[in-house]
Amino acid sequence: MAQEYIEIKGARENNLKNVSLKIPKRKITIFTGVSGSGKSSLVFDTIAMEAQRLLAENFSTFLRGFMPKYPQPAADSLANLNMAVVIDQKRLGGGSHSTVGTITDISSILRLLFSRAGKPSIGGAHLFSFNDPKGMCPECNGLGRKMGFNMDLFLDESKSLNEGAVLYPGYAPGNWEWNILNESHLFDMDKKIADYTKEEKDLLLYGKAQKVSLKFGGKSVNLTYEGAIEKLTNKYIKKDLKAYSAKTQKTVEPYLSMGTCPLCKGARLSPEALGVKVGGHNIAELQAMEVDELAEVVRALSAPQAEPILEALESRLTHLCDIGL
Ligand SMILES: [Zn+2]
Fold it and tell me: How much distance in Å is there from the Cα of 147 to the middle of ligand 1?
């Protein structure tokens, strides 16, 4: 009958004071108590921690080196544990689907797989981590999101430059930036932006700095032309907007919005890491899959140089499928 209970003796994790208890198996047990009474210390830091530590012992020492470390919890003994599935708000936020990217140990094994079996080979597992300076996308520093100008507020494509297509202050007809556009003779000022070619639009918004000779009041002036977004990004986003005056901040802020990083498209990794494929997929594609989908892909893979890694991955995924995560 001993197997009917999980037995904990002398638990002392965090503020637990030598707690011993039995928890019935195959029943729903709810831990209640005032804040600070040690519910989480017992459930997450003692029971779940030990269960995950035991699970991790199934992997080879080599693989464990790449997995999260589970310290032995402070307790005299824990008996009759099953494998634990820890589900909390942090991991499975908002009832959304759990992709494998959110399961830490699978991400670790995937990074290892890509470092061993990925084509082209670029080196170690850390190059596939968005937390590592060498693996993260250089544009968004591994966040996947980036501050940029909200184009809906910035530009009215149904208008021409002469009709005030650029809505940002300074670009209205007669204003300074509009004068530069007008005098540069780089643009058709009467053509609607929607009718611009991709090249024309790129020059207007993202054109790199170039010298132009303008005529102002009959005089020739040499100025630098820069695409509007390029110029404002260099000025306000690449530097700290907070360093500007309150008035400037107030002008710029309404036009800014947080969006998907244009370089990594939200994948958080460097272009080098995203260029590496295993079985036709890059690591971000695999991490975005749900468990059963990835299990199918992994079963179809063959990588002689990474056989133990594939086996570990497959057994972990099968396990997760079995428990219905
Ligand atoms: Zn990025």
Answer: 11
